[in-house]
Amino acid sequence: MSLAVVLVEPAGPLNVGSVARLCANFAIEQLRLVAPRCDHLGAEARQMAVHGEALLEQARLYPDLATAIADCRRVVATSGRIETESLPLSEPDEALRWLCQTDSRKVDEGPERSNPVAALVFGREDRGLSNAELLQAGRVVRLATSEAYASLNLSHAVAICLHELQTCRTQPQPMAGSPTLCSRGALEATLADAEALLLEVGFLYPHTAAARMAKLRALLQRAQVQEPEVALLRGMVRQLRWAARQGTP
Questions:
Q1: How far apart are CA 148 and CA 140, in angstroms?
Q2: 22-59 confidence digits (pLDDT tens)
Q3: Using one digit for the tens of pLDDT, what is the confidence trace for 143-181?
Q4: CA distance 100 to 242
Q5: Which of 183, 166, 86 is nearest to 132 (CA)?
Q6: Taking CA 1 as the corner, what is the angle to CA 141 and CA 178, rounded to the nearest 5 degrees?
Q7: What CATH number does domain 184-246 carry, 3.30.70, 3.40.50, 1.10.8, 1.10.150?
């Protein structure tokens, strides 16, 4: 499984360059930047990248996190804070070992999807990832630091996680029957269909829809939804929409 490091709205070119170098150090194939707030190809970033400069030049840019991880089956997000009980934390070694797991079977999705992607996501330097962004991950981790000063520099956090990830890759444990998870894009499309239907039939209201859908998203993340299951859910939503409209005068 191909691995990508995703930085959400990075503001420091020195940090971005350092992360590119770390990606080269630990053989990470892709660097993805979500709405960067700095020049990732500027002199400062290149100076810090050293032999990771090629990764800077090949970095993919995305407008939001959902788009950046739409093709990913496994996503681990990092956070320095947790504001809701719907986001259970995982230990870094457990989460990163889960990230490294390979599917138990191949899924015929065409050549463009023949190499599934796993993503390790890091938030903004000043405020990290929002709860809505954290809910898009299958695992959420927080690195153990001193309570007196818990905030880590972005590139330092990436270095710690990639070192742990390298340990998982070089010392693999047997993973029997690892499920073939659906892509983030397929799950988000199903949730969007479900939200539209639930608003239409009055189960959801506009002012509470986001909070209730967040609970549903967290439930499905914990369930590790697979491709046939997400197809079943989407089929159910479409049939229910048809039935509801048939009964409308």
A1: 22
A2: 999 999 989 999 999 999 999 999 999 999 999 999 99
A3: 888 878 878 899 999 999 999 999 888 775 555 455 677
A4: 40
A5: 86
A6: 70
A7: 1.10.8
Q: Residue type at 10?
A: P
pTM strictly above 0.70: yes
Is CATH 3.40.1390.30 what the domain over 2-170 is classified as, yes or no? no
* Cα distances (Å, whole numbers) of residue 174 to 11, 49, 102: 39, 35, 11
The type of residue at 102 is T
Q: Which residues contact 42 (CB under 8 A, 6 or more apart)?
A: 13
Q: Are 68 and 120 in contact (CB under 8 A)?
A: no
Q: Please report the DSSP string for the chain in residue order.
A: -EEEEEEES---HHHHHHHHHHHHHTT--EEEEES-SS-TTSHHHHHHHGGGHHHHHH-EEESSHHHHTTTEEEEEEE-S----TTS-EE-HHHHHHHHH---SS-----GGGSS-EEEEEE-BTTTB--HHHHTTSSEEE-----TTS-PPPHHHHHHHHHHHHHHHHHS----TT---BPPHHHHHHHHHHHHHHHHHTTSS-TTTHHHHHHHHHHHHHHHT-BHHHHHHHHHHHHHHHHHHHHT--
Q: Residue for token digits 């599917």?
A: 103
Phi, psi of 243 (to 5 degrees): -65, -40
Domain boundaries, the chain: 2-170, 184-246
